[in-house]
Design goal:
With 148 residues, this protein is α+β, with helices and mostly antiparallel strands. It has two domains: 66 residues, VC0802-like (2-Layer Sandwich), CATH 3.30.2130.10; 65 residues, VC0802-like (2-Layer Sandwich), CATH 3.30.2130. Helices cover 29% and strands 36% of the residues. It is built from four helices and seven strands; from the N terminus they run E-H-E-E-H-E-H-E-E-H-E. Strands 1, 2, 3, 4, 5, 6 and 7 form a seven-stranded antiparallel beta sheet that branches. Strand 5 and strand 6 form a beta hairpin. The longest helix has 11 residues. The chain starts with 7 loop residues before the first strand and ends in an 8-residue tail after the last strand. The mean pLDDT is 91.
């Protein structure tokens, strides 16, 4: 799927669950100049996962490797949503109308540019892109989620 202009590279970091582990990860990335554009954290049993979107995924991966973090990478979509009641529901209605499942979704906000958006993964990213574009929903590229 690489090469699709609306695919955003997401990095999923696996870590032991425990006090301070998320702080340690984010401090390590910060110390190396990596700005998180979006973050979602979940846990299961004794471990947690941090889904992150960053401006420079290649650099972030190198930093994670050097620090010994376990990670994987996958593609997600970044979708602009109206920052008003029903904005997210409108986007989700389009996806549901195509009989697509939303695997997960989390928020992304850029107050400097007045951008409200979501990062999402569905059962079929290409079909999701086509459906959203047909309804005039703005999809963001990797470059558009990078701060100016």
């Amino acid at each position: 799927m690489a090469g699709e202009p609306f695919f955003i590279r997401q990095i999923v970091v696996f870590m032991d669950k425990g006090p301070g582990n998320l702080a340690k990860l984010t401090r390590h990335l910060s110390a190396r100049g990596i700005n998180l554009r979006a973050l979602s954290v979940s846990e299961k049993g004794d471990f947690g996962t941090a889904r992150i979107v960053v401006p420079d995924p290649d650099n972030c991966i190198e930093v994670l490797k050097e620090a010994g973090y376990h990670y994987r990478e996958n593609d997600v979509l970044a979708v602009e949503v109206a920052d008003q009641p029903g904005g997210m529901a409108d986007v989700l209605d389009v996806i549901a109308g195509e009989n697509l499942n939303v695997d997960y979704i989390y928020c992304m906000i850029d107050a400097r540019r007045g951008l409200a958006g979501v990062i999402l993964r569905t059962s079929d990213l290409l079909k999701t892109i086509a459906a959203l574009q047909a309804k005039g929903v703005k999809l963001l590229t990797q470059q558009e989620i990078t701060p100016l």
